[in-house]
Amino acid sequence: MDRNKKIIVIGAGWAGLGATYHLVKQGFDVTLLEASSHAGGLVAGWKTAQGKSVEAGIHGFWYPYRNIFHLVKELNLEPFTAFTQSNQYSPYGLETTSPIFQNQPYLPSPLGTFVYPQFHRLPLCDRISALPLMYAVIDFDNSEEAWRRYDKITARELFRQYGVSSRLYHESFEPMLLVGLFAPGEQCSAAAALGMLYYFILAHQPDFDVVWCRGTVGEKIFQPWIEEIEKLGGKVVTNQRVTDILVDERGLATGVVCSDNVYEADSIISGVSVSGIKKIVSSSKSLNRYQQFRNLNNLGGIDVLAVRLWFDKKVNIPQPSNACFGFDRTTGWTFFDLNALHDQYQGEKGSVVEVDFYHANQFLSMTDDAIVERVHQYLKTCLPEFAMAEIIDSSVIRIPQGVTHFAPGSYQHLLKVQTAIPNLFMSGDWIITNHGSWSQEKAYVTGLEAANKVIEYFHQGKQADIIPVQKDEPHIEIARIINKNLRQVTEGFFPNFSL
């Protein structure tokens, strides 16, 4: 390089850190800006005034997270637990126990994920009613055409059209949506539902297997990652909330504005959430000139509530990770045994439990005491032994619009990595990508994709090697080829009746 190109990355989450790390390794002059006081934002976690670790929800790392697992290996980190089983509860008690699927005899997709979970109340006839849904799984091939086609209807309507029984929907599929897409089925895009279910559950038998961070993500992954970035020459600056992206008369981004500070740039990567980029657009005269950025106001977020409880005695919690449904009609929640998952709590005399609520709109206005009392009651319903334990400390964290809402019709407003501004690139778990991943893995992958766009733009550096998702099994590949050919033939004879 005749001089190191200046790259500004906005947002120090999985996407921003991924882009920064790769570009620094390629010799670029990279500054990573984070709005909060600690890199990693909500995902990273922080310390309370009493020195206790808390975070805005517990994040799992699923079997298909091949790029994240490769990253932590490269950083010589060992942040994860072993793979864990999980339980699912309703107000009636234990509903389902999911095994570690990779330890079971391998069955063709998706039989294993239907056969091996122990359903304690769901009859076989209801489970069989899901079989016709396999056509939608085959038809939805993650292409742009498929996304646009299935994004027009709700997930609930999709399951109804394919004959899924009411009981199977309410006791199996909707709970997955409530803790996977964070909203009830009538508020979720069918395309997003199919993409999420396929990636995490249906594509390959072990995909639902999950490990957990043995502490906060900030302590175990982000902090050593940032230290490596700074060792390589990258700069990470906190308490820098971006309010504008400067664009010159040529239509090129030239820098970002953070209050009284201006950071000049040859290229910019955004790695912030939907709510974060909407705030930047609302205050930016430059971005407001572009339709694609104004359209982001059609997107929304979902409220999250994270509660951490310290008890005076140990409660026997059969599985470290647990999902719950049926306690509130539109809200899913999870609870975790941190004594089993986090290193720092293994020696505690009492149980430490994390409880996370998604689509938690109705809870955010409640007082902390009322929330803690409600959570304790829910835990006692799942495991009566909690009635014998007293709460001695608690932490309540409210995150309005904390996660992306993939509502019906939202796909048309999402952005791709490449924007209308040639040297401004987007990354994050809400960005359109052909990779096929979801959640944290998707955010990290799109960060690498944005870094690759910068390298392509300047014709300098080596592009990041992105590990693709595992290929479809042969019978799924064949079924998709046949379905695609039939669809092309029928389109030549019949008019298109979709609206």
UniProtKB/TrEMBL annotation:
Domain of life of the source: Bacteria
Q: Which InterPro entries match?
A: Amino_oxidase (IPR002937), FAD/NAD-bd_sf (IPR036188), Zeta_carotene_desat/Oxidored (IPR050464)
Q: Give the Amine oxidase domain ranges.
A: 15-455
Q: Which Gene3D superfamilies match?
A: FAD/NAD(P)-binding domain
Q: Which GO molecular function, any one, fits this protein according to its record?
A: oxidoreductase activity
Record's Pfam families?
Amino_oxidase (PF01593)
Q: Membrane-spanning regions, if any?
A: 7-24
Swiss-Prot/TrEMBL keywords: Membrane, Transmembrane, Transmembrane helix
Q: What is this protein called?
A: Amine oxidase
Q: Which organism is this entry from?
A: Cyanobacterium aponinum (strain PCC 10605)
